[in-house]
Amino acid sequence: MAWAPWRDNGTRISANGTRVVFAESSPFRIREVPNDGFIRIRIICNREMILVTSPQALSEILVTKGYEFEKPQYLRDTLGPVIGHGLVLAEGDAHKVQRRKFMPAFGFRHIKELYPLFWRKSREVVRAMTAECDANGVLNAEAGAWASRCTLDVIGTAGVGRDFGAINDEHNQLVNEYMKLTQPSRTDRKIMILAEIVGHFLPIEPFMNLPMPRVREIRHSVDIVRNVCKDVISSKKKKLEQGKLEDVDIVSIAIRSGVFSDSELVDHMMTFLGAGHETTGSALTWAIYALARFPDTQNRLRDEIRANLPSVDEETEITSPDIDKLPYLNAVCSEVLRIYPSVPQTVRQAARDTVIDGRLIPKGTRLVLAAWGTNVDPTLWGPDAAEFKPERWLSVNDGGSHSVKEASTGGASSNYAFLTFLHGPRSCIGQAFSKSEFACLLAAWVGRFHFVLQDERLQDEANMLFEQLVTCKPTDGLHVRATVVPGY
Question: Which residues are annotated as a binding site for heme?
């Protein structure tokens, strides 16, 4: 591939796992390396990958030729046990069939009907957090743990039809097992690196069964999660036999379709439980981090929330317009998703010889689609691309400087400047669900509490260490001081 600009980084592995198998973050690469849409990089074992940077190339890979690029087998084999071999890891015709079957659970009207449930769960978690405060109304908390507990209950209730009771039970078994599975560690990074090396030459399934402590822990947690899924599925099948299964949730739709075996149903439920609560939980965690770093933004957001939404102490329900009409809340959510994508990058492998943006891409070529880089590329977002600036999503009608059309894209020059949910047939099926849930949860949290970082050094983002397994998270969690703000 002599046509691609070259950046030699040897085989050094980053201290920040989310900056993948190459040593520096993709944002720096995109800015520092002159390129015309592709950057050729070296990875483990001196092999090559292509970092894709141009909107035209991204549009072809994600939309026009979306099914000509697949997740590498090593990635499917390592993530499969954690999130299930469901829609996220399906390829080709299997993916097309599954996505079509599940679309009713993520339809526009159905998501709008879920806002009251999202708000009830938001109230519940804020009340639980308030109950844990000391006499001065202060809670020293790990934000990520609370975020995981509430998002697991939301996806459980709205997505699979069961309330797991995680919000009010910090020792909830399902929560604890998911924390073991998804809290990234340096050991997980080493396993992923070894899996990629082994997977390049041999099937990695035997490797994933080696008697290593971390592998045993993962298998034990997976068994527990699968048993929970089996129990939910069994219960719903009994309702189907009795003619009482009318729910419009993911599992009910899958059961009624009649096209999935029991094992496949378990995989699908694991996918939506794991990926569904992890992505929103990660977004909520990073939102609290950003707002703690920028207290003026946090205060402005709180003012908007308190002026327009009922207190979480009230039993008042809200509907979708109550949330959707809040410009600054939605701007903050969009900016968090831009700067801190839950999945900073995805890897694709060419399933056949193909051509992208006029360049030959041989079968087997691996490409990196780096939301972490593209989402802050100054050639797409302007010179302030790397700044946390919710105002970029505001139109002149809402106190911003953009037209309504420009504000809808944050002022970016291309739709493909925002890769958090990807695009095309492989885009995130649950993005509307996740964004709506995220907005409700963030509104409730910020409406009640003021958040400050316990470790002041983390005000400098350079000091924040983070890792990626399923999603990107702070390595040691996000420890904050949440103080009840009176008057709401």
Answer: 428
Residue numbers belonging to the annotated binding site? 428
Confidence of residue 192 (pLDDT cuts 50, 70, 90): low
Give the pLDDT band of residue 409 (cuts 50, 70, 90). very high
From the list 400, 371, 376, the residue with the least C-alpha distance to 388 is 376
CATH class held by domain 38-484 = mainly alpha
Average pLDDT of the chain to the nearest whole number: 88
Find the mean pLDDT for residues 265-281: 93
pLDDT of 3 > 50? The answer is: no
Given this model, what pLDDT does residue 212 score? 75
- Predicted TM-score (pTM) above 0.70: yes
Q: What pLDDT is recorded for position 189? A: 66
H, E, C per residue of the chain: CCCCCEECCCCCCCCCHHHCCCCCCHHHHHHHCCCCCEEEEECHHHCEEEEECCHHHHHHHHHHCHHHEECCHHHHHHHHHHHCCCHHHCCHHHHHHHHHHHHHHHCHHHHHHCHHHHHHHHHHHHHHHHHCCCCCCEEEEEHHHHHHHHHHHHHHHHHCCCCCCCCCCCCCHHHHHHHHHHCCCHHHHHHHHHHHHHHCCCCCCCHHHCCCHHHHHHHHHHHHHHHHHHHHHHHHHHHHHCCCCCCCCHHHHHHHHCCCCHHHHHHHHHHHHHHHHHHHHHHHHHHHHHHHHCHHHHHHHHHHHHHHCCCCCCCCCCCHHHHHCCHHHHHHHHHHHHHCCCCCEEEEEECCCEEECCEEECCCCEEEEEHHHHCCCHHHHCCCCCCCCHHHHCEHHHCCCECHHHHHCCCCCCHHHCCCCCCHHHCCCCHHHHHHHHHHHHHHHHHHEEEEECCHHHHCHHHCCEEECCCEEECCCCEEEEEECCCC
When mean pLDDT is compared across 225-229, 251-255, 444-448, the lowest value belongs to 251-255
Answer positive or negative: Cα dihedral of 347, 353, 359, 364: positive
